[in-house]
Amino acid sequence: MSPRSRMGELEQAVLDVLWDLGSASGREVHERLAARGGRELAYTTVMTVLDRLARKDVLVREREGRAFRYAPRRSRAAMTAEVMREALDETGPDRDQALVSFVGEASEADLAALRRALADLS
To answer: Among 36, 70, 79, 81, which one is most buried in terms of CB atoms within 10 A?
Structure first.
């Protein structure tokens, strides 16, 4: 599976729509993307992206009549955590320093959330 940081802009936009909706047909995703404005997207382009994300195991695809319904396999938070873990894994021996730097630049709200999360794990 391709993590969020390695997804294309359109793949990310499609995934954002699905996170907002929970699940949707290809037509619903196409309509939501069109409503957001920006560039014109062909319906077939959106279907190609949905198919690609399903093959990458990012989406669950279930038959609904003659069409498919798509849903994210993981939550936005779970995918963000995966990207963070991969980034830390790529730092090698600088992992501790990367964590200290991250925490040093965190907002007070983020630090409070980290403290709560650590307390919940204890």
So the answer is: 70
